[in-house]
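During the first year of the project, the team set up a workflow for recording each protein of interest as an amino acid sequence followed immediately by a discrete structure-token representation. This format lets reviewers and collaborators read both layers of information side by side without switching files. As required by the reporting guidelines, we include two representative entries from the current panel. The first entry is reproduced here exactly as it appears in our internal archive.
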Amino acid sequence: MNEITDYNLAKSIMGGNFIGLEELRKIEPIRLMIPDPIPVIPYSRDIFEQKEKDYILILGVSKFADGKPVTISNLQRYFGKNPEIMEPCFYNQDWYDNEKFIELPMTDGWFFIRKTVFEDSRAVQPQELEKKYSFPSAVCCAYAFFMAWLALDIKLWYYDFVWCSDTDHNGDRIYVGKYHDIDGINRNGFSIHRHLALRPCYGCINIDENR
């Protein structure tokens, strides 16, 4: 299996599912510190043939032009949490402000990320899905979401959540996505949530009503 390391060849194969040097340089309102030289694309032709339709190939970048790391925390500083001011943006929530995973940085290098959820993964517990799928990190999802929207006008996981490899300080699984609430109740925004695991502090009570 020969690796497709040629930049232009990879771009021609992926077509509209490619975010590389030129695409990242055109993105507003952020500026990224594009690695020089650009990392080698480490995928075989077989991988490209498997993923060219359902995935985006993205150049991951670890730092903004000002030297700050590309983290969820810093992405929020650029995009904010108010869709009336700017879109795309993050959903307005603060439960994770002190969680470590929002400070984990991107790394320089290429990655494929799927544009839609696998249909057979819907409503399945993450511990079961982990046996079959490789979950992306939350920062990788956030980075991909905003880059795809701004560079390609592709709105990833617009109505769906995707499981991430991260957990919060309690070990609860992180899931992200679902930018738009199809019921129109919640405001637009890239959402970040946690899947609460059952622990001894969860229980029930009884109520007796005299009716």
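The second entry, processed by the same pipeline in the following quarter, appears below.
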Amino acid sequence: MNLKQQARLALAAIAVSASQMAGAQTTLLNASYDVAREFYKDINVAFIANYKKTTGKELKIDQAHGGSSAQARAVNDGLEADVVTMNTTTDIDFLASTGVVAKDWNKKFPDNAAPTSSTMLFLVRQGNPKGIKDWDDLVKPGVQVIVVNPKTGGNGRMAYLAAWGSVRKRGGSDAQAAEFVGKLYKNVPVLAKGGRDATTIFLQRNIGDVLVTFESEVVSVDKEFGAGRVDAIHPSTSIVAENPIAVVERTVAKKGTGDVARAYLQFLYSDEGQEVAAKHAIRPRNAALLKKYASTFKPIQLFTVDEYFGSFAEAQKLHFNDGGQFDRLYSVR
């Protein structure tokens, strides 16, 4: 055998070995909401290291992000995500209704399958030139508000419900809440598709005086655009926005990734996973970590969806389905 033949055989052996290694590596896809990109990048690094240490196996995790409702529709239409990590239960309920995830998905993990939560606050331009302090300031003449379209993203639904609930929390009626929310949306120059799109509109296109978004977006903005570009304003009241998770049973049954997918989601409840959440200004369930990061999680009078809307399913039907309250309050510019 000459040197050329030996080289060819060696290269072939390397190719076979690489192919076998690639075949042995499991890949998961996490379909998630728009502003969770950086959080899950760090979660993935931590979990892959943990998985390698405990099993000795290689793992790759891909991410797909967008407006949560758009993501849910994509998964329903065939996107082969192994897990979904959303910001409203209605998007996972939709997947449960079509058999893509388990009908009792919220019983598969602790805390109604929501390992973390967030709330809605305001991001304003440095120095807060419009003097925005609370919800009432968002309906003042000349104040432009950037929010996500509640039809396409959970970020938008939570902003809408937070605004509505702020009136109820102060003792107002649903009629007064509807009047207030209607005034707020008259100050919205353009509806964003998702949370990150809203941030882009606010900071890159320089539209609007205030961005209503998740608490966690403060960390992302500081990292991407530089600290000091925005001031975070915590209103007196806001809503509890739980971040539900589920295994996509249709996909894991096909790929055989069910055990890994469940371990990945369970990792979110671990001390390490909860710490990653807190570092991204996502509220952990761990009480000790909430106390440790007290400077991040400012005290706000929080209310739940159930408190003023019955349930998320009821809120979806009344407010966000076609012909619902949102359609009656908002007219396309």
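For the second entry, the following points were noted during internal review. The radius of gyration is 22 Å. Residues 3-24 form the longest helix (22 residues). Both points are flagged for discussion at the upcoming steering committee meeting.
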